[in-house]
Amino acid sequence: MTNPFSASKLHPAVWWMVGFSFAILAGSSGNLIVLGAILLACVFVILSCRETAPWSQSLRFYLILGALVVSLRLVFRIVFNLESGGSEPWLRLPKLGLNLGVLGEFQFFGAVDKASILAALTDGLRLAAIILSVGMANTLANPRKLLKSTPGALFEVATAISVAINLAPQLIESLQRVRKARMLRGRSDGLRALSGIVIPVLEDTIDRSMSLAASMDARGFGRTADQSALRTTWLRAISLVSVCCFAIGCYLMLATKPDLLSLGVVAIGLVCLVWAVKANSAKHLRTRYRPQPLCPADYVGLLLSALVTTAALLGWGV
Amino acid sequence: MITFSDFSFQYSKTDSPVLRRLNLNYSPGEFSLICGPTGSGKSTFLKTINGLAPHFTGGTARGRILLAGQDVSGSLPHQLAELVGYVNQQPEGSFVADTVEDELAYGLEQLGIAPAKMHEAIVAIADSLGLADLLTKPLGYLSGGQQQRVAIGAAIAAGQRILVLDEPTSALDSEAAEELLRLLTQLAHESRITVLIAEHRIERLIGLVDSVTMVHPDGSVTKSEPAKAFNDYRMVPPLVELAQRLDWKPLPLDIEAAESFWNSSRVATNPRIPFRRDLTSTVLQVSDLGVNFGGESALHPSSFSVAECEVLAIVGKNGSGKSSLLWAIQGSGMRTSGKSLINGVDPAQLAAADRFEQVCLVPQNAADLLFLNSLAEELEESDRFAKVSAATTAGLFARLAGRLDPIRHPRDLSAGQQLALVLALQLVKGARVLLLDEPTRGLDYEAKRQLATQIATLKSSGKAVLVATHDLEFVSLVADSVLELVEGRVISHLPVAEALASGTALATQISSLVRQPGVISINDVLGVDHA
């Protein structure tokens, strides 16, 4: 029962690009139809491409989170009602005034007009669409495969993430084992049980992490080639500056309308960043076994994400 | 290949070095067994070879270590990764990747092997370790033995000439362990890899290795031929113990060698009286007890009974349903059918606290039950919880393990002492039925003998004891009857002397040597009182 659209057909990095581009489009859009389309697209893609790995089972979680965000927005809008009084009311609720003395008078409920409900719904759906876009990338990209294609300079960070992924199911397993063991001593579950559970579980987890670290070290993890101190310092400085450029550019782009200045700063930041990562990777001697090359489907994915991002930047989604 | 010269190692905050002035030399292709009592520094000795000690364990090293003629004193583990492969007790804890292939590739990637050569190396190592069909399998789906083979493959895939293993078989059943040790022998003798292995179950290895390295409690380390190494060493398998006691020289290492000594000696044996269950004093009645996990049957419905003062050993391979059976009897484990009655009451019907008064189970990982910071706290908390008079638990513990410093941390106790502590904590309410899941895992012969004495003490106080284990020599020391499980089915339930008799699949070393009914352990030969 192989799925012709299974997520592993695409490079995990491409999934993340697609996810981010959807998120950017959602973030810049105020159009209910566009937002609804993004949400539906994410759910459809996750359902048709997901695999059986543990990280692929989280769609329900993202859906619940999205629904929560939308309903919170709506509830807040209705409860903390700021009557605009413009258009005709859509929903009439009894007013509830509350005088808070110095803070002035607050008013809850009351007549809610259609426009404000719509605005709240749009806000909520926008957040939900961003959550689902990122969720889609997270659900469909195999983190270990992503690790394999991370550049050497980021390898330590990526390894830490991969180890954390490994550790999570082990933690759950030792938690279950220790809870069962407590029951054997006639103890019941409850808050007071916490100390009795935390110590053995932590001990177990630390032991396992240490033995994993020892095994990785014994197999050569962390080998580096010699590099001059001057070069290392320069590379660090450039990395720092490029990250700052990128961050400031992104801020400008989001805070104002995307213009030439902000786009330029982002571009300079990105180029420097890529160069710095490449240069930093040279000090690692690591090779890669069967890295996943980009295939035609990946290029289609990249093209799609580029189109979506451009559309978002040009304001088509508004 | 490996040379220690004037090498010493000391942990910080200790008075004396754990390894003292070592001068040793291992040649290429040498297969050496590392022996020594628990806590003597076997693990430390192995870790010094690739620098894990002191870099991971702390402490200071003095003197020199040479690997393949190269002085590597003070090197970091990752700098020695292409020379030394290291494998520890629990393979699943050392895995980095998802699949067998990626795990084998990991070390090669770190060492910067060219991608074209990597594939060749992986195929070659997979072939020699019998992993060729498993390359694309996820690591989690493999059996313990297969996982340990992957760990070994990953350690030597880059052509490492030295392989160091710290008790690699402790979680495996006999069959998987034998298979693994056979592979290691091949690696040493055919691929000329120097293999150093620490192992408690000496009988599995004694006939295979070229030398025995003894780590003594005073920190000295000696290396000798297998036949000479054990002349006056206490922690030996029953066959060697018998040879020591009867003063056979040179020590026979396998049954064939021992047979000529045995045939020419005229030792009067002391066969044990066949065990008869006292049908009037049944404590535990198991009827039609079955367990299914996810639609698959872990235990087919089984029925048997255990009387007071009886020790029943449950034997079988890993995955044959031993643990499922114990947990189902205890009542908190999964059950699909049947019941277990202790004096007419099924513990599954009771609340956890009441169940605790009827039956106690010591799980494989006994330390899971310990959660306080000192021995005294654990013992006192137990008295309070059980609402018994002060020092009841402490008294029980003293009967099992003697007196120990009460400020010691429970997790710093030896595996045997921890087991005694857990037994005392579990038995404080006077449970009649005691269930032990693989209690001998990681214990040396001395600790096993102590555990056997503890079980005998409990048995004489009227308990019914069930021990799940694959350690048949231990079974011959403690059990009255044996229940054998194969793939979740009870295939036999016999008195111990019949179950372990010569010619059966479960024969002990002594029964294979002596071949007399009722003689299965060294006590039956040398006439220790069976009362």
Task: Explain the overall architecture.
The complex is a heterodimer of chains A (318) and B (531). Chain A is mostly helical and 318 residues long. Helices cover 66% and strands 6% of the residues of chain A. Chain A has a two-stranded antiparallel ribbon. Chain A starts with 11 loop residues before the first helix and ends in a 5-residue tail after the last helix. By secondary structure, chain B is of the alpha/beta class. Helices cover 34% and strands 22% of the residues of chain B. Chain B contains 20 helices and 19 strands. Chain B has helices at residues 42-49, 52-55, 100-110, 115-128, 144-156, 174-189, 202-205, 226-229, 238-245, 255-264, 322-330, 352-358, 375-386, 392-401, 415-427, 445-460, 472-478, 496-499, 509-514, 522-526, and strands spanning 2-10, 19-26, 31-35, 60-67, 70-71, 84-87, 162-166, 194-198, 211-215, 221-224, 282-293, 296-307, 310-315, 337-342, 359-362, 433-437, 464-468, 481-486, 489-495. Chain B has a 6-stranded mixed β-sheet with strand order 6-7-8-3-9-10, sandwiched between helices. In chain B, strands 15-16-17-13-18-19 form a 6-stranded mixed β-sheet, with helices on both faces. Chain B is globular, with a radius of gyration of 24 Å. In chain B, 51% of the residues are buried. The mean pLDDT of chain B is 89. Chains A and B meet through α6 and α7 of A and β6, α3, α4 and α12 of B.
Main traits of this protein?
heterodimer, A: mainly alpha, two-stranded antiparallel sheet, 66% helix, 6% strand, B: 531 residues, alpha/beta, 6-stranded mixed β-sheet
What profile does the largest beta sheet of chain B have?
Answer: 6 strands, mixed
Q: Which structural class is indicated by helix and strand composition of chain B?
A: alpha/beta
Mean pLDDT of chain A: 81
Helix content of chain A: 55-70%
Strand content of chain B: 15-25%
Order of strands in the sheet with most strands of chain A: 1-2
Please bin the fraction of helical residues of chain B: 25-40%
Number of strands of chain A: 2
Largest interface here, residues on each chain?
A-B, 43 and 63 residues
